[in-house]
Design a protein that fits this description.
This protein is α+β, with helices and mostly antiparallel strands. It is built from three helices and nine strands; from the N terminus they run ββββββαβαβαβ.
């Protein structure tokens, strides 16, 4: 009986994992540390560097939109402060059938972990905080 081998993907943790800690400009998950922002998708956790974290664009979410059929809820950790998502981004997510919820990164991490534990179709885009 042939089993599936391990698939190695560049800059990608191939699985879903709760975020164990955040701060100091990065995150800890799956007994690993990552410096910088993260995008947590059903296909795994990716390093994510939006061009301007203060002005997110649709292009910053291309990877997420490619998996839109697997995502119902997107939590956006906006850093320390809550800011609304730009209208064009909200519209693109809505058109893809994804409910978006901007919040502070800390709140997004906590909410992501709860929804992940409930096995929900959740994704998170988390801007690193110091």
């Amino acid at each position: 009986m042939a089993g599936k081998g391990i698939i190695i993907r560049e800059a990608h943790f191939p699985g879903r994992a709760p975020i164990e800690a955040y701060g100091n400009g990065g995150f800890r998950f799956a007994d690993m540390s990552h410096r910088g922002s993260l995008m947590c998708l059903p296909t795994g956790i990716h390093g994510w560097e939006p061009a301007n974290p203060q002005a997110l664009t649709v292009a910053d979410f291309d990877r997420l939109l490619a998996e839109a059929d697997k995502v119902e809820i997107l939590l956006v950790g906006m850093g320390r402060d809550l800011r609304p998502l730009p209208a064009a981004l909200r519209a693109a997510l809505k058109d893809a059938g994804i409910a978006s919820d901007p919040m502070s990164t800390g709140a997004a991490v906590r909410t992501y972990n709860v929804l992940l534990a409930e096995n929900r179709a959740v994704a998170a885009a988390l801007i690193a905080v110091d």
